Amino acid sequence: MSPSADHRADDPAQNRCLVARRVVHEKEETTEREDDEEEEKSSDEGLLLQAHHAMERMEEFVHKMWEGRWRVIPHDVLPDWLKDNDFLLHGHRPPMPSFRACFKSIFRIHTETGNIWTHLLGCLFFLCLGIVYMFRPNMSFVAPFQEKIVIGMFFLGAILCLSFSWLFHTVYCHSEGVSRVFSKLDYSGIAFLIMGSFVPWLYYSFYCSPQPCFIYLIVVCILGVAAITVSQCDFFATPQYRGVRAGVFVGLGLSGVIPSLHFMITEGFLRATTMGQMGWLFLMAALYITGACLYAARIPERFFPGKCDIWFHSHQLFHILVVAGAFVHFHGVSNLQEFRYTAGGGCAEEGGV
Ligand SMILES: [Zn+2]
């Protein structure tokens, strides 16, 4: 240590002065640093703003590009959230984060074209059929208001199912979030169709036994709500759960086996197949179950990978079978309605359910 330093350390007045000077110096340094930081901050904010604007312009450009020109792409370059069926090798839409582009793609040829149109046309068909049916003269019904509501539930279920379905297939390629929301609607729609199909069938089949009719209706509603609830889980939409999905909806439909057996036991096989329209019910079940099996096993594309990319792949066949099944059910229900009209509203002479 030098003598001068020793001397400075011994003089308290000089020490205070030094400390004061150091404090002033540090304060000045801090103020300069703060000024520098503020300048840096404002320049950072400016850069961020510029980047944000650039991103916006980029997004605008991308949207315009998607709306104009895009090409179908092979399965292996799809992002994970768009990879659903690896037997469809080519013809997929790329991710298109624009609703306008998604809706325009309805008129282009790709893996979803058939899925969209089968249910879009099916939806329009049931909408027209429903309107025509609702405007039938009241004199063709025993209890027009009640019966129109009951049959209207079937039309509502069918229209909801088919419209959620074509909407889902249209916007499926928008983004991961949009595809997730619409897939949940799509699955819920299947539950609505099944529940709506039960209503008129139970109403006419158990016309003179309101108690079992009501119990079966409550049970199918509880099962339907359970199916809708499980459809809201994110894992439910993943490709690994394809079989589980088919199983849940086939199980919901097959819950109709118990009221069918009840009906056949009380009415006898002959009356059940003639008056009860059981033949149409079996055909409907066969169409739905065949559709669900093709969907779960991915037949025929499993045997011809790359050959059914655009037409006749399992999902399209499943869609066609759903529309056919719903129409067969409508035919059976309208026959039941006619039988009820011919028999009149009385129950005593019917002797059965
Ligand atoms: Zn579908």
From TrEMBL:
Membrane topology annotation: Multi-pass membrane protein
Residue stretches of biased makeup (Acidic residues): 31-42
Coiled coil stretches, renumbered: none
Domain of life from the UniProt record: Eukaryota
GO cellular component: plasma membrane
InterPro entries: AdipoR/HlyIII-related
GO molecular function: metal ion binding; signaling receptor activity
Biased amino acid composition, Basic and acidic residues: 1-13
Gene Ontology biological process terms in this record: adiponectin-activated signaling pathway
Annotated stretches, region: Disordered: 1-45
Compartments where found: Membrane
A Pfam family the protein falls into: HlyIII
TM spans (from-to): 116-135, 150-173, 185-203, 215-237, 244-265, 277-297
Keywords: Membrane, Metal-binding, Transmembrane, Transmembrane helix, Zinc
UniProt keyword Transmembrane helix, yes or no: yes
Binding sites annotated in the UniProt record for Zn(2+): 169, 315, 319
Family of the protein in this entry: Belongs to the ADIPOR family.
Protein name according to UniProt: Adiponectin receptor 2
